[in-house]
Design goal:
The structure holds two protein chains of two kinds.
Chain A: H1 3-28, H2 33-53, H3 56-73, H4 81-104, H5 113-124, H6 127-142, H7 145-148, H8 150-161, E1 174-177, H9 178-186, H10 191-203, H11 222-243, E2 251-254, H12 256-282, H13 289-310, E3 311-313, H14 315-318, H15 321-332, E4 336-341, E5 346-348, H16 349-370, H17 374-379, E6 386-395, E7 398-405, H18 412-421, H19 427-431, H20 435-439, H21 462-472, E8 476-482, E9 486-494, E10 499-507, E11 510-515, E12 519-525, E13 533-536, E14 539-544, E15 547-553, H22 554-557, H23 568-571, E16 589-596, E17 599-605, E18 607-615, E19 629-634, E20 640-644, H24 646-652, H25 659-675, E21 677-685, E22 687-694, E23 700-705, E24 710-712, E25 715-720, E26 723-729, E27 741-749, E28 752-757, E29 760-768, E30 780-786, E31 789-794, H26 796-803, H27 805-815, E32 822-826, H28 830-842, E33 846-850, H29 853-861, E34 868-872, H30 880-888, E35 898-902, H31 907-916, E36 920-923, H32 927-938
Parallel strand pairs in A: 4-6, 11-20, 15-17, 22-31, 26-28, 32-33, 32-34, 34-35, 35-36
Antiparallel strand pairs in A: 1-2, 3-5, 6-7, 7-9, 8-9, 10-11, 10-18, 12-16, 13-14, 14-15, 16-17, 19-20, 21-22, 21-29, 23-27, 24-25, 25-26, 27-28, 30-31
Chain B: E1 22-30, E2 33-38, E3 42-46, E4 61-67, E5 70-76, H1 77-80, E6 93-99, E7 102-108, E8 110-118, E9 122-123, H2 131-136, E10 137-142, E11 147-151, H3 153-156, H4 161-164
Parallel strand pairs in B: 2-11, 5-7
Antiparallel strand pairs in B: 1-2, 1-8, 3-6, 4-5, 6-7, 9-10, 10-11
The chains are: A alpha+beta, B mainly beta.
Chain lengths: ~950, ~160
């Protein structure tokens, strides 16, 4: 069966069962607005889902009963037994339709006009037909009851006995694949099985649903057919019950409490295991060692398995969305592109269940209200295709889900009017509200800005359901909207039960866990070390790679060691002295460099222990207001430990606002890192040390038959593509054999090509290279660690000259009297400077290099003259754009062509490059293009 | 680790015939005063435990501890009742109670027997009693030799919420 459909059946059956109970309770407490709200939402959800799945008959019934409930909610109708019976009857009808649907995967033929008519009459408030309908309504109810609906009956009874049943909504049992549980109990197969199991439902591409929309037979006259219809229903009802289970046989529903309990037991087991291991470690060669190892392994797998039962990728909650958006797009005649990022972000199953509906609602809202019609979009200068973007990721112990659309945004004026009309705020209150505050109104119950109530949305149950569902799991929802530009919802959900890897640190004798995700690096600082903590007016900072890192003293923040408070100035310097001699080196402090969003700061701690996998447990309610903690956990040694929330720490140090300012810099840092990644060809020649040469310089890799090598003046040559290509051995001592094949790296430049003879080509790696320039022999740029091996980086330029004496010399001769054109190369990477120099020299330029823009400008002030400047884009201190602008603003250099050299050559980059005055923009390592461009701009 | 120091929560040696008029209380002492907590509310009775301090927490919170894999928040009742801290060197005991799904360990000086008390000896507390005690108790039982203040766990644990709001 269609996965979508079967899920719908399971869910709707649950909702209906719940509705039966709730409705009966409502009859007893007709004034309970919460109850009513809940009922209304459930019916609304059913209706909405039916609409998307293309189940018109179900939708019609649900719509009619929703109408009635809507009237009741608005106070236009009073809850009477007659009304309740009628609504219950409509639920029964829905149940029957569901059963039919399950069996035939299609809605049964026929319609429910009679029922709908009665519901509509009820909604309109006319009593007579409702009364007339009452016996009719009662009859079918009585008939199917014996066999048909034992389930709801039991539920009703339960509802009467325990009013807490409503709480069940909150603690709905999690769904666990049967196989997974089986696996945990048996513990034999590897964890891979579970992975496959988990992946399976995802892989199942949602097939097109069966063509359900059979035209409803018109000959059936609604009125006369009622009786017949009812009897057939009864017949069907008889079989309905046993068939119910068919949908759910792949999974079993296990109460979350049970899993929780299991989890606790496993934690205990792990704890005991750890203790045993500790004992075993002290007692080597014990006969227990081997069985203990086995126990340890099984325990770990068991733990992993139990944890996995609760974790699911968020993509599961998204699987329905592409279809939904597509259908919506068709229905609303809009073009919508749904982008989903981070679908494999794992989160707790229970959390997943609870955010599923809110997410669906929000995407639906975005598509319906947010994205404009294609015509309007084009008119407003937007691309015809609207975009809805879903993005999920972990951030500092939370899961963030962003739903962004580029639609029309929220209409603040409309919101104001609506808020006034609904009495949510007075005029003066609204006057004083910020735009942000006004936008928050959409999260209130009964608030809808849609002018027309469509079958899609607009009844005002949307956003308040979303908010209440998210808040139920302790999350927050944030809204940003700009009229005309689009809206963005940011949902932040705590990882209440997720497993995180955490760094254990100690401050003032207390241990804390910091989620590893937000830890960037660790720095050890002592008075005499390279990293020394400095003070600016009592505020500690650390110089880290030419940047100042703000530091946060955990001791001060946590108000540990109250005696220290007066000594704030000294706290940092003496941070470790008071810890009752626990730290040996009193001057030593550790700095945990932490990143929150784009804001990086250091946390000062006394000691750093290991990292440990921890299960985040929520803190007790009375501690929840302390924003510095995201939870607590029990460590392997059995002690309780608080988990720090880097977000909270950043916020409480008042620095979170800096984030925007730092964004640019952080981006720059990322770019700088990206820029250094180079493709390198690794080979061996001569000695055993691996050698590397930038792949971009190599034209081709060839294998040359040694027998074809000829000699001219004692130098090896080979006929290659109709030319003679000189071969240069990397190592002078290499003597070429006369048979077999020899790998050769071919370097080409215009008409010249040269073969570098090597012993073996090993690999091509993409790596960040940091060349330590220490050439102990010619032809070598230096050494670098590549793939974990010390590797010689080869200076290709050196070998070019070896092959062609004139490669360097020729330009001089050609130019003769002419002065060689002068080129200034600005690049922060020594490697690239060293690479470009021979290249440009070979091409006949006189090259000057500097490592940043400031130095280049100093040269300008000193009166240096150049014909062209080649500049890198990503550089520290002053990036290429800033540099180009600065150059354009100088008097003397304002006309010099500047060529940008960058690994980023997106259209936006090019555009920006042109704006700031770059003459041209060339991809890094595109030698040909660089030479060509120089030739065109300034001539050789 | 706590097991050896655990005392059975219900010492139901004598045959108590519950007539509805009898309520069972775990008796605890803090300072010189006898208190009682309904026996059905009590999960565990613990000896001294290793407690993790929680910085920035309300002063009543002594920290948290691990009770068979569950994290329990320890509340120092002396602090809660505005009594002077326990003299150094004296090891207290704890009574673990549950409130809306969370476990709390109430740190007291000593835990005594389970008493079955007759309704007729119960009365509400005199208005002259200290506000701090009145707030957290529902009344007083007259025992033969002393008085037992009945602690109401819900109000006992209702502190620091204002900050949370």
């Amino acid at each position: 069966m269609d996965e979508l459909l079967s899920e719908f059946l399971t869910e709707t059956s649950e909702s209906i069962a719940e509705l039966d109970v709730e409705l009966v309770r409502l009859e007893q407490n007709p004034n309970d607005q919460n109850l009513l709200g809940n009922i209304f939402r459930l019916v609304h959800t059913i209706k909405g889902t039916c609409g998307f799945l293309g189940l018109p008959r179900l939708e019609a019934v649900a719509h009619a009963s929703e109408n009635v409930l809507g009237k009741v909610r608005d106070g236009d109708l009073v809850v009477t037994p007659v009304a309740v019976s009628l609504v219950l009857e409509s639920f029964d009808q829905i149940k029957w339709l569901l059963a039919e649907l399950e069996e035939n995967e299609a809605e049964p033929a026929g319609d429910d006009l009679d029922l709908i008519a009665r519901l509509n009459l009820l909604a309109e408030g006319s009593e007579v037909p409702a009364q007339a309908a009452a016996p009719e309504a009662a009859a079918p109810e009585a008939a199917p009851e014996p066999e048909a609906a034992p389930e709801p009956e039991v539920a009703v009874a339960a509802g009467e006995l325990s009013p807490e049943i409503a709480d069940v909504i909150g603690t709905r049992p999690g769904e666990v694949p049967l196989d997974e549980l089986e696996r945990i109990f048996q513990e034999t197969p590897g964890p891979d099985d579970a992975m496959a199991m988990e992946a399976e439902p995802e892989a199942e591409a949602a097939p097109e649903p069966e063509p359900e929309a059979e035209p409803e037979p018109e000959q059936e006259a609604a009125g006369t057919e009622v009786a017949v219809g009812k009897s057939s229903e009864v017949a069907v009802h008889k079989e309905a019950a046993p068939r119910e289970s068919a949908v759910a046989n792949q999974t079993i529903r296990v109460n979350v409490d049970l899993l929780e309990n299991l989890m606790t037991m496993v934690s205990e087991l792990v704890l005991t295991r750890n203790q045993l291991m500790q004992i075993a470690r002290n007692d080597k060669d014990s006969e227990f060692t081997v069985p203990l190892q086995r126990l340890s392994q099984v325990t770990s797998e068991l733990q992993e398995g139990v944890m996995k039962t609760r974790m699911q990728p968020i993509g599961n909650a998204w699987s329905k969305l592409p279809r939904l958006v597509r259908d919506l797009g068709l229905e609303l005649k809009k073009k919508i592109d749904l982008q989903m990022l981070g679908a494999d972000t794992e989160l707790d199953r229970q959390v997943l269940e609870l955010i599923k509906d809110p997410l669906t609602h929000m995407v639906r809202n975005s598509a319906d209200h947010g994205i404009e019609d294609a015509i309007v979009r084009v008119k407003n200068g937007k691309p015809e295709m609207g975009t809805i973007k879903l993005n999920a990721y972990h951030e500092g112990g939370h899961i963030i889900i962003e739903i962004t659309d580029d639609g029309r945004g929220l209409d603040t004026e409309a919101l104001k009017k609506k808020a006034l009309a609904n009495g949510l705020a007075t005029e003066t209150e609204i006057e004083n509200m910020s735009e942000q505050q006004i936008q928050q109104f959409i999260m209130r119950a009964g608030f809808s800005t849609a002018k027309v109530v469509t079958s899609v949305s607009g009844r005002g149950v949307g956003m308040d359901v979303v908010r209440s569902n998210i808040e139920k799991i302790g999350g927050t929802i944030e809204l940003k909207s700009e009229e005309g530009k689009g809206s963005s919802f940011i949902i932040k959900i705590p990882l209440t039960l997720a497993i995180v890897s955490a760094l254990i640190v100690e401050v003032a004798g207390e241990r804390f866990a910091i989620p590893q995700l937000s830890v960037v690096e660790l720095v050890r600082s002592s008075a005499d070390s390279e990293h020394r903590i400095e003070q600016i007016h009592g505020t500690p900072v650390l110089r880290l790679r030419n940047r100042l890192l703000p530091l946060v003293s955990l001791r001060k923040l946590m108000q540990l060691d109250e005696d220290d408070l007066e000594l704030t100035e000294e706290v940092v310097a003496e941070a470790t002295q008071e810890t009752s001699g626990m730290v040996l080196n009193s001057k030593e402090t550790f700095i945990v460099v932490t990143q929150v969003g784009t804001y990086t700061f250091g946390i000062l701690v006394d000691r750093v222990f290991d990292t440990e996998e921890i299960v985040v447990k929520p803190v007790a309610p009375i501690l929840r207001h302390i924003s510095l903690f995201s939870g607590n956990t029990i460590l392997g040694d059995g002690s309780v430990i608080m988990i720090l929330d880097p977000n909270g720490i950043a916020a409480s140090t008042g620095e979170i606002t800096v984030a925007d300012g730092n964004e640019v810099e952080a981006n720059r840092a990322n770019l700088a890192r990206a820029q250094d990644v180079t493709s390198l060809l690794i080979f061996k020649a001569g000695d055993t040390a691996p050698k590397a040469v930038p792949l971009a310089l190599v034209a081709r890799l060839e294998e040359i038959d040694l027998a074809s090598i000829e000699y001219s003046e004692g130098r090896p040559l080979v006929q290659y593509r109709g030319q003679l290509m000189p071969l240069v051995p990397l190592d002078e001592q290499t003597t070429l054999g006369s048979e077999g094949r020899q790998p050769v790296l071919v370097f080409a430049d215009g008409d010249h090509s040269m073969g570098l003879i090597v012993d073996e080509i090993i690999d091509i790696v993409e790596d960040r290279i940091k060349v330590e320039i220490a050439p102990d022999k010619p032809g070598q740029l230096g050494n670098a660690v590549i793939n974990g091996h010390a590797t010689d980086v080869i200076d290709a330029g050196f070998y070019l000259t070896r092959a062609f004496g004139d490669w360097f010399g020729a330009p001089d001769e050609e130019i003769g009297d002419k002065v060689a054109k002068r080129v200034l190369v600005v690049d922060d990477s020594a490697f690239f400077r060293n690479l470009l120099t021979p290249l440009l020299s070979v091409a006949g330029y006189q090259v000057t290099t500097v490592d940043d823009g400031r130095k280049a400008l100093e040269l300008c002030e000193d009166g240096a003259e150049f014909d062209a400047i080649i500049s890198d884009i990503e550089m520290p201190e002053m990036n290429g754009f800033e540099f180009a602008e600065a150059v354009r603003n100088t008097d003397r250099w304002s006309d010099i062509p500047i060529v940008a050299l960058s690994s980023h050559t997106s259209a936006a980059d090019l555009e920006r490059g042109r704006e700031v005055g770059f003459t041209d923009y060339i991809a890094k390592l595109d030698r040909e293009a660089l030479i060509e461009t120089l030739l065109q701009t300034i001539g050789a | 680790m706590a097991d050896n120091s655990k005392v059975p929560a219900v010492q139901n040696g004598q045959n108590v015939v519950s007539l509805g008029a009898l309520d069972q209380y775990v008796s605890i002492t803090i300072g010189n005063q006898l208190f009682g907590i309904k026996v059905l509310l009590v999960h565990d009775v613990l000896g001294p435990q290793r407690i993790t301090r929680i910085p920035l927490s309300p002063k009543e919170v002594a920290g948290s501890l691990n009770l068979r894999g569950r994290i329990v928040t320890a509340i120092d009742l002396r602090s809660r009742l505005n009594m002077p801290p326990r003299p150094k060197g004296e090891e207290g005991m704890s009574v673990v109670v549950e409130q809306s799904g969370e476990l709390y360990s109430l740190m007291v000086d000593a835990v005594g027997e389970v008493l079955s008390l007759d309704d007729t000896n119960f009365e509400s507390h005199p208005p002259t009693m200290a506000q701090t005690i009145r707030e957290v108790s529902s009344g007083i039982y007259r025992l033969d030799d002393t008085l037992l203040v009945v602690l109401d766990c819900d109000s006992l644990l209702n502190f620091g919420r204002q900050d949370a709001a």
